[in-house]
Structure prediction request, 789 residues.
Amino acid sequence: MKVLSGNAERVDDETVLIDSNSSVKINASDGTIELNRGDAVLGSCNDVKITMNDGELQVVAGGLNVDGGDSVTGNSVVINGGSVGVTVVGGCVWEDGSANENKVIVTNGTIGIEEYGYVSGGYVDVGDDGSGNAGKNEVAVSGGTINCNVYGGWIDETYVNGSANENKVTISGGVIVGNESEVEIYGGYVVGEDDGYGNTVNGSADGNIVTISGGTIGATESEVEIYGGRVYGDGFGEGLIVNGSANGNTVTISGGTIGGDESYVDIFGGFASGTGSANNNKVMVSGVNVGSEGVVGGGYAYGNGSANGNTVTISGENTGISIIVGGYSEEGNAINNTVNLYANAKFATLFGGMTGEDGTGDVKTGNTLNVRGSNLTVKGIENFENINFYVPSDAKNGDTVLTVKENVNIQDTTINAGVQKGSELSKGDSLTLLKSEKELTGTAASFGKVTETDFIDYDMKITQDGNSLKGTITSGGSTNEVSKSPVETMTANLAMINMGLDQVARTGFNSAAAAIKSETAQGADSSDAAIFANISGSNVKAESGSHIDIDGWNFNLGFAKEIENNSGKLLVAPIVEYGHGDYDSYLDNGVHADGNSKYWGAGLMARQTNNNGFYYEGSIIGGKSDSDYSSSDIGSGVSYDSDALFVAAHLGAGKVVEIDDASNINYYGKFFYTHLGGDDVTLSNGADYSFDSSESKRIMLGSRWTRSINAKNGLYAGLAWQYEFDAEARATVKGIAAPSPSMQGHTGIMELGWKVQPSDAPMDVDLGFMGYTGKTKGVSLNLNLNWKF
Prediction:
């Protein structure tokens, strides 16, 4: 066999000799190697790309390190055709080291013509008492024929100390028949051998992902093993010790054929021998044929380790599954596991936890069976502390949710039931939640209600009737606390528009007057228009029965004009306004949502200032508000977009009292009104919300002290009290009223500011700070600019 590395002798700038009739094309610019035919290709250690389109080879390795103690990373091998007799590996290390972030892609061709070959993203042979890591490698198969096993990352030898974590195997097509009718597909694999003298295997195969969406795996009378991660001691000598973990792995199978007639199929998220744990793994199987006898499980602890916290989900029409188990431990505990049954599993017995024949561990505590669907059938159910029935929206009066062929023992089991969104069931309708075709025995620990991850709850009374459990609807549906979360967005919209209106009423008139004064000082006529602009940034917390945090800013631009009259002078200014904010809403039950709210509008502001110091003012602005909403705490995630028209206005009156030549106090009272239109939206989970229009009505009483320090500098400070009469956001879900957040209540306001006219600058600057306490809490920073032309 010829061996080629990236440093092999080159025939010319682009050609490396393999043998007399084969060549490898090397593109010096990016390191890409394109193979035509030959005996073997072994790349250098790192960042080599090999593409095989044709020919016959024995071994293809993207990166190879035979000296050990170093890493092989970033290599890739693509097999588009031809045949490889033994092995295809992305990165390979002998005598300890690491093979990380390598990749193998198979689209066509044949691999493993001879026995004992393999396909692996990364492989480490740790040698004698060595250590290694094979992590974040990938294997993707979409075509071709593979007559050997497939591993994302693999560590091997007698004395093993290492990890095969976060590897990926993705199969979307092709045929994988394995070695001698035995097929192994593992995301991460750590395996050691028993030397008969008490050696130890220490390893982890955690966080690996196996995804199968197509192809054929196994054949007639084959044995197929599909594991997310596996830590194993090969051999049964008395002194062999295996420690480690196969935790947090994920296996998803949504298509293809797994096994054939008279075949045995094992599918587990994690498998750990000895004292190793197989915890928190996830397995999802949907609509596939799983041999003639298949076991689907979350975690498998082949020893005295634990198999806890695993989740198995069965959906679609599956055939061939005989056992579905959350967690299996030969001698330890298998608790807090979840089995989700969304489809028929007619020949399967469902276990929350299982143990070996002589095992004494706890296999029931915390194990939960979730049943979603109707007219489902299983062979048996065992070792569940909780059984939850989520009755589908299309269920009819008199339907049966789950039929069990064998005896069912519900002793010390908590039974809960609820109805999913969109149900047409009415008060008084009943269903058979569970029916045993043989016998229902034991006494349930309790009957209760399960809340579907939606917004409407249906109360259901559960009773035992012979060999069945019956559920009767006792209410026509009511919104739960979660349904309030999407409504909080309307509160955030109101708050954003109100902050813009406050800016107009608080600083807009002062900025407009200052702009006119500045223009007049330069010789302009007071009737000429003067440009002014205000920008403010706020961080506030609005109490709404729950609360909303808003980070926003508001900007307005106006053209002010002053008209003298017999009583004093009238200031008028058309304005345009824009506001944008990010918000986070929090319910008391912990549900969090976020989004953004923005608006734009145009309007008019006017103030009459009399010669005796009295003034009265008003403003009106109309525009459009846009917002979005997203929460990952509701079901699998909920979002929506909304828009509505708004109008906002205020009226105010006050008096400026001169204290001395340099200072005065402004006493004022103001009324604010905002109307935000409604909207009908469909959330991403299909729920229909109808948002009513909402209104804010506020009064504000306060005073501001102002003092001129010199011709270019001034200070001001103020206190105010505000009361919100309404600001309640209302909505319905399927015509049922959702809880309404409201900002009604008292707020105290303090302000401090500094006015300055920078030397030789074409503008006046007003920098202000405001603090809020009460119903609204937080701070805002205001910057007002008056341009001179």
